[in-house]
Amino acid sequence: MENENLLAIANEFGSPVYVYDSSKIISQYDRLSDAFKKVKRLKLNYAVKALSNIAVLKLMNSLGAGLDTVSAQEVELGLKAGVKPSNIVFTPNGVSLEEIEEVSALGVQINIDNLSILEQFGTKHPNVPVCIRMNPHVMAGGNSKISVGHIDSKFGISIHQIPHILRIVENTGMRINGIHMHTGSDILDIEVFLRACEILFETAMNFKNLDFIDFGSGFKVPYKLGDIETNIEEFGSKMTKRFNTFCKEYGKELTLGFEPGKFLVSESGYFLAKVNVIKQTTSTVFAGIDSGFNHFIRPMFYNSHHEIINISNPKGKERFYSVVGYICETDTFATNRRISEINEGDTIAFKNAGAYCFSMSSNYNSRYRPAEVLWHEGKAHLIRKRETFEDLTKNQVDVDIFSKVAETT
Ligand SMILES: *Cc1c(COP(=O)(O)O)cnc(C)c1O
Fold this sequence. Notes:
Layout: H1 3-13, E1 17-21, H2 22-35, E2 42-47, H3 54-63, E3 66-69, H4 72-80, E4 88-90, H5 97-105, E5 109-112, H6 115-124, E6 130-135, E7 157-158, H7 162-172, E8 176-180, H8 190-204, E9 212-214, H9 232-250, E10 255-258, H10 262-265, E11 269-280, E12 285-289, H11 298-301, E13 308-310, E14 318-324, E15 332-340, E16 347-350, E17 371-376, E18 379-384, H12 389-393
The chain binds pyridoxal-5'-phosphate.
C-alpha cells in the first residue's frame, strides 16, 4: 500500500484506524504453501486469535486455509464466516470439559492438552477422534512471554507422560487421530525447530491411527530492517524431506499441518493514529497520539518494535521522538525513534499491525475501539465500525438503588 492510500483511509474513516492489505495476506499464504508444495497433504489452519475479523476469516476460507481456534467463540466466528466445521481445529488451553464437548458436537476437530480432560472426554465420547497437544520441551524462540514449549509451560502434555496417555487411550478405547505441538512464537533457529519435530515424530510412532501431525506455528516475520526472519523456503525444503520419509516409516500418507497467525497477517496491517500534541520536555520530544495501549498493546506488553512512518510528511527532516498515547498510564509506543518531522495533526502509521493488535484491544479509559478497514484490489472496505457510546453502555445495567444525591455545600 502507498502512503496516499493510507492517508485517504485515515481521512475517510477517521483515526485511529486499523488497515489490512489483503494482497499481503494472500502472498504470505502462497509463500507458505509453495514452501511445502512437495508434501502430498498439507493443511494450513489460520490462528484466528491473531486477527479475528470475519472478513479476514472469509478471505482465509477463500484461500483454502482452515482455522485454528482457542475458544468456542472463535469457532462461532469461523462458522459465521462460512468455514465448514471440518475445516476448524479447536486448540484451547485450560478450558472446561463442557466447552470442549460443545465445540466437538459441532463437528470441529478437538485438540486436548491435558491428561485429566483426555481421560474424561475419552470415557464419555470414545468414538470421537481426538488430537493430542504434546509439549516437546524445546524452546524454538527467545522471548519467554511468547514461548510455550519450556518445561514449566502450562501448554500441552509432556512427552514424559506418553505412557499415561497410552494407558488412557487403551482403557477408554478412544482414537487419537492427530498429534500436535506449538512451541510458541518466533522460530529463530530452524534446526532447533526440526529437533522438536523429531520428538513429535517419535511420539507419533506410539499411535497407530493418525491422520495428521500438526506442527503449530512460530514463524517469525521481520518487524524492523535487519530482523531475523524464519527462512520459510529453507525450512519448507528440509521439513518436506523429513516429513515424507517419516510417512514411509509410519506406513501411511499423513497430513502435515501448521497453524500460522502472525506469519499470515502481521505485515498486512497498519495502525493509523493522529498526533494530538507535540510536547518538548527537558529531555525529549513527545509525540502524543489519539490512542494508547487500549488500542495497541504489543509495544508495552511484549516490548515489541513497530516501525513508525509519518505518512503526512514522509520526506521531512528526521528527528528523534518518543511516541506516547493519550491514556492515563505510561503508554509508550517508541522511544528515541527517528521519524520525519511531526507536526500536530499529522497521521502516523505503525507497521506490522495485523497480528495481535486489534484482537487485543480494550475499552480502557472508556475509549472506543478503532474501526478496521480491509484494502482489497485497490479499494478500501470498512470491515468494522468504530465503536460508539452505545457500545460502552449497552451491557451496563443502570440500577436505581441510591436514595438521593448527596448535597455538597
Ligand atoms: C497463537 C497460536 C498460534 C499462532 O501463533 P503465531 O505465532 O501467531 O503464528 C498457533 N497455534 C496455537 C495453538 C496458538 O495458540
